[in-house]
Amino acid sequence: xxxxxxxxxxxxxxxxxxxxxxxxxxxxxxxxxxxxxxxxxxxxxxxxxxxxxxxxxxxxxxxxxxxxxxxxxxxxxxxxxxxxxxxxxxxxxxxxxxxxxxxxxxxxxxxxxxxxxxxxxxxxxxxxxxxxxxxxxxxxxxxxxxxxxxxxxxxxxxxxxxxxxxxxxxxxxxxxxxxxxxxxxxxxxxxxxxxxxxxxxxxxxxxxxxxxxxxxxxxxxxxxxxxxxxxxxx
Length: 234
Known about the structure:
By secondary structure, the protein is an all-alpha fold. It is about 70% helix and about 0% strand.
């Protein structure tokens, strides 16, 4: 009889969530800074240059960390798995703390790489009904992508998530934050990817609404089966 594989400890899983989310934010904010430097004021070009690295790094990070923690990198995703009974609530709380702290560290590392002040507060206004609806739609679609693809083709989830976020950057008015940890961390960067802190609560509320609405629909369409360890986003 073959021995059972050793399951990662909670410390290993939490660290994977922390490190993965830190890398994600370093990519989001760092590519935004680089894009702003090189695009010559062309906002569409800067957004494209911000989009491609974000989608690409998501695929890499999910492939790397999904076998350890599930590669959530997103409190909305972790909450969804906890509500489905697939992640213990104590584990979910630790995951979320790791994701938020990792996201902030990722922003600070991006600032250091580009020789910007470590501590900043964004002045970029992102508010209004259209933006809030966009965040609900972006997170709703992200959760459906994860559960739908995982139900039939779990190996394709990293690529589906990366492609979904690449697309959602462009079809949503908010450029698809779709992640409370990302939203909090981006409020601490006065760069291309930033969001003013007073816009954060409404974005997070919209994201959580989108995630919660996706749950019964995903169960109806695909049943309860999904990845035990499944990914997230930006």
